[in-house]
Give the backbone structure.
Amino acid sequence: MDSATPAPRHVLLLGGTTEARALAGLLTEEPWLRVTSSLAGRVAAPRLPPGEVRTGGFGGVAGMTDWLRRHRVDALIDATHPFAETISSHAALAAAGAHVPLLALRRPGWAPGEGDDWHPVGSLGEAAAVLPELGRRVFLTTGRMGLAAFAALDQLWFLLRSVDPPEPPAPRRLRTVLERGPFALEGERRLLAEHRIDVLVTKDSGGAATAPKLVAAREARIPVVVVRRPRAPEGVHAVADGAAALDWLRSLPR
């Protein structure tokens, strides 16, 4: 590199989502940016984004703050899952401690449409509490990490969809389908009918990749228990797409 040419600005991208991979692809096309994507390592065979990749935790807020400083990060983008509450909180505190600009990339949440029978709840525990009143055959799409919340519901039958196999504790009557999205509407219709599903449980993760299950549930007149998103850290600017994230990076002082 010519000595007169400034070094690329280093962006740490907290990823693991479809939007994060797309954003990494967009940012790595910019020669003035160096992109490092950080993956939590919870999935055995993740889809790796373009650019540099690190895997595993940081060791809490202090560890992330130190990483930002040691690797001379110029900007931090939190593009994790909307329910990754802990890492988002750590990112806000670490960015403030290291004096690094922080942006959140958040896909818009879902909204009920005509014909939907939604039952909003504040947690997986609340979802488990209302299930016996709504159905007996449950399609659980909240991931394997929160399965323990439903472990005591022996009277219900569960179909769990997950990328990796779950670990105990788990409901006694459980069948697991190992699949990774995006999911097509016809496949969701077939899944509901084949397993005689009469109630769906999901998180308000938003986005298009897993939204067809909501359409299929509406068509089948199946109630949907929707876990509301946790609150985002205060004071963190958020955008809804990669183009807006790139515009934000361009707006930062050099």
